[in-house]
């Protein structure tokens, strides 16, 4: 559920992803390699299920293309002072495209090349969506009332 919540827009959407993931898991149980970690196998299934869900939704929305080359700014880590639940609440407010690329790059550790292959988008679009996701997160943090910036409850 924690994995799917990162990719979902809402808890209901995450529950749908989890259900789909468990269905895939049970249908493919015979493919499980007992030499691998069971948790890692389930995590992979849930990430891939979330990406599949994203691909189905993305057909209905228009992806934003890269207009200019954006270099990703890694110098400022605006999320370092948030706890996990606060981060998830903020990430869930991002658009589907931004949320998916942000999760794959910043949380799951995939490269832009890998993301572009997974989502069938250009590397530039992946970089652009990550840049815009970070900018949106910065804006959300800046717009939060000062009393809420230490503990964000959305």
Supply the CATH superfamily name of the largest domain. Answer: Winged helix-like DNA-binding domain superfamily/Winged helix DNA-binding domain
Cα-atom Rg, whole angstroms?
16 Å
Unreliable segments (pLDDT under 50, ≥5 consecutive)? 62-76, 149-154
Major sheet size, sense and barrel closure: none
What distance lies between the first and last C-alpha atoms, to the nearest angstrom?
Answer: 19 Å
Secondary-structure-based class equals: mainly alpha
Q: How does the overall form come out from the CA principal axes?
A: globular
Q: Tell how many strands the DSSP assignment holds.
A: 0
CATH class of the largest domain: Mainly Alpha
What is the number of domains?
Answer: 2
Gross CATH architecture of the largest domain = Orthogonal Bundle
Helix/strand order: HHHHHHH
Query: Number of helical segments?
Result: 7
- In the CATH scheme, what's the topology name of the largest domain? Arc Repressor Mutant, subunit A
Taken as a percent bin, the fraction of beta residues is under 5%
- Helix amount: 55-70%
- Summarize model confidence as the mean pLDDT: 80
GO molecular function: DNA binding; sigma factor activity
Keywords: Sigma factor, Transcription, Transcription regulation
Family: Belongs to the sigma-70 factor family. ECF subfamily.
Domain RNA polymerase sigma factor 70 region 4 type: 85-137
Describe the structure.
By secondary structure, this protein is mainly alpha-helical. It has two domains: 1-60, no CATH class; 73-154, Winged helix-like DNA-binding domain superfamily/Winged helix DNA-binding domain (Arc Repressor Mutant, subunit A), CATH 1.10.10. 60% of the residues lie in helices and 0% in strands. α2 packs across α3. It is globular and about 50 Å long. The two termini are 19 Å apart. Mean pLDDT is 80; it is low at 62-76 and 149-154. InterPro entries: RNA_pol_sigma-70-like, RNA_pol_sigma-70_dom, RNA_pol_sigma70_r2, RNA_pol_sigma70_r4_t2, RNA_pol_sigma_r2, RNA_pol_sigma_r3/r4-like, WH-like_DNA-bd_sf. This is RNA polymerase sigma factor. Residues 2-57 form the RNA polymerase sigma-70 region domain.
């Amino acid at each position: 559920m924690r994995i799917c919540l990162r990719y979902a827009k809402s808890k209901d959407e995450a529950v749908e992803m989890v259900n789909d993931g468990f269905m895939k898991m049970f249908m493919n149980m015979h493919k499980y390699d007992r030499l691998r970690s069971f948790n890692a196998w389930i995590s992979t299934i849930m990430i891939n299920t979330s990406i599949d869900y994203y691909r189905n939704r993305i057909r209905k929305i228009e992806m934003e293309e890269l207009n200019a080359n954006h270099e990703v700014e890694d110098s400022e880590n605006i999320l370092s002072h948030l706890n996990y639940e606060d981060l998830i609440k903020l990430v869930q407010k991002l658009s589907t495209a931004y949320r998916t690329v942000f999760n794959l790059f910043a949380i799951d550790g995939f490269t832009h090349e890998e993301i572009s292959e997974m989502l069938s988008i250009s590397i530039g679009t992946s970089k652009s969506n990550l840049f815009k996701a970070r900018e949106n997160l910065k804006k959300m943090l800046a717009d939060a009332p000062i009393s809420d910036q230490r503990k964000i409850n959305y």
